[in-house]
Amino acid sequence: MPKWLRISVFLACISIAPLRAQDVDPGITRVIAEVNPDSLIATVGRLSGETPVWIRGGETIILSRNKNHPGNDLAAEYIAERLSRMGLEVENHWFSETGRNVLGFQAGGLYPGQVYLLSAHYDSMPDSAVSPGADDNASGVAAVLEAARILAGAELNFSVIYAFWDEEEYGYIGSRAYAVRAVSRKEDIRGVINLDMIGWDGNGDMRILLDIGRNADRNPLFDTANHVNGAYGIGLTIATDTGTVQSDQRPFRNHGFLALGIHEYLPGDMNPFYHTVNDRVEHLHPDFFLRCARLAAGTIASLAQSGLMVAVETIPPDRAVLTLAQNHPNPFNPETVIAYTIPEPGHVVLDMWDMLGRQVSTLVDGWRMAGPHAVTVDGRHLPSGMYTYRIQMDGWMRQRKMLLLK
Q1: Whether 74 contacts 55, CB under 8 Å
Q2: Which of 10, 294, 301, 375 is the least crowded, having the fewest Cβ atoms under 10 Å away?
Q3: What beta strand segments (E) does 41-106 contain?
Q4: What is the pLDDT of residues 107-143, one digit of tens each?
Q5: What is the CATH number of the domain that holds 21?
Q6: What is the 3-state secondary structure (H, E, C) of 232-250?
């Protein structure tokens, strides 16, 4: 967590201009709505030792995520297993004998080499056998995992890395190591959204701090987050800081990458349990936490231009198209619904494929009238994993991914 006492914050309440209907994307609305407050709190509870977790095939409790205690490694394993169950490609980025970042990779369909990062550090303070770190920073970790859960089955235009940094509390060592590696590999990182402490709002003013860096007039990440907050009615009051916040966005800026920090800490409303054994889930403010998580999910979805974004308002009324919606719910177990619309009567084939390219089910194979349709998928006979579903009709083809999680 940043050493906030040196922060000189420029408090700027952002005025939101009236937004046109086309500024609101129904897909982003759905992403934001699917952020689950119970899921957020449950994840924080597991990471902060309030409830047991299932790791490496057994039940355990994460008592401390500090780098000098076994729970740090357990937390990394827990995060990695969560990402793997979502169907994401997982990398353990070891930067020392004991320090590792956990990365979940989701490839973009149009621009796979161009990447956005949504990140949070998972280590905690104090350096003690009990170091719950619920706000600092299980709250940020939970929000990143929740965004990954919602978006993992979506078709994205740009790639997304869900990144979890180790050893932020000792000088953002993990994020610095990754930034150095990214430069050496010439990675095309389009932007980094970093979450650090987003669960405390002691005075109830719903004020959030966005660290936009010194080049405030050239930060499209801020513009996107600001738009998401206003257009989708998230209801946070935005304050800005021009780069004095010390958190994991800083190493990326120092190495030439665009970055935005999302934080709760503002003068006069600092979490009094910060870096103590009493930084527990019971002290979080759930409504504020939920709004911050929704801001993060909506922002990364907008930046990645998710396939969920079907701007219905912008399609001319005389242009009939074949559409295939994202299944709902997603992830699912055991059933989910796939909706689709066909532009004219014709023969429709809708089938499912596993990640090895094997066809596992034919959901529709027959004549359908023009208009909206839906089909229910029963996954009870299928193993957990990522699946592709594809619709074809008279030269049209659309496909998406979905996650069965048992």
Answers
A1: yes
A2: 10
A3: 53-55, 58-60, 89-94, 100-106
A4: 988 888 889 999 999 999 999 999 999 999 999 999 9
A5: 3.40.630.10
A6: CCCCCEEEEECCCCCCCHH
Residue among 79, 264, 255 nearest 163 (CA): 79
The residue segments making up the domain with residue 273 are 4-304
Structure token pair of residue 93: 């980025």
* C-alpha to C-alpha distance for 332 and 34, rounded to whole angstroms: 13
Tokens coding 108: 């973009």
Question: In whole angstroms, what is the distance from residue 279 CA to residue 130 CA?
Answer: 10
CA distances from 285 to 21, 102, 204, 206 (A): 32, 27, 9, 10
88 pLDDT tier (thresholds 50, 70, 90): very high
Token representation of residue 127: 């350096």
Q: Do 283 and 359 fall within a single domain?
A: no
Tell me how long the chain is.
406
Domains: count for the chain: 2
Question: What token pair was written down for 98?
Answer: 């004991």
Residues 212 and 319 in one domain: no
CB atoms within 10 A of CB 39: 16
| Least reliable range by pLDDT among 23-32, 62-71, 165-174, 291-300 | 23-32
> What are the residues whose beta carbons fall under 8 Å from the beta carbon of 340, sequence distance 6 or more?
322, 323, 324, 325, 348, 350, 372, 373, 374, 375, 391, 398
Outline where 152-247 has alpha helix (H): 173-184, 220-231
**Domain final residue, candidates 252, 282, 304:** 304
Position 142, amino acid: A
Asked whether the bond before 126 is cis by omega within 30 degrees of 0, the reply is yes
Confidence of residue 321 (pLDDT cuts 50, 70, 90): low
C-alpha closest to that of 358 among 397, 379, 387, 324? 387
Mean predicted lDDT score pLDDT of the chain = 87
- The verdict on residue 309 lying in a domain is no
First to last CA, the chain: 35
- How confident is the model over 136-188, as pLDDT tens digits? 999 999 999 999 999 998 888 899 999 999 999 999 999 999 999 999 999 99
CA dist 181 → 109, 165, 293, 312 (Å): 24, 14, 28, 41
Nearest to 305 by CA among 163, 89, 112, 87: 112
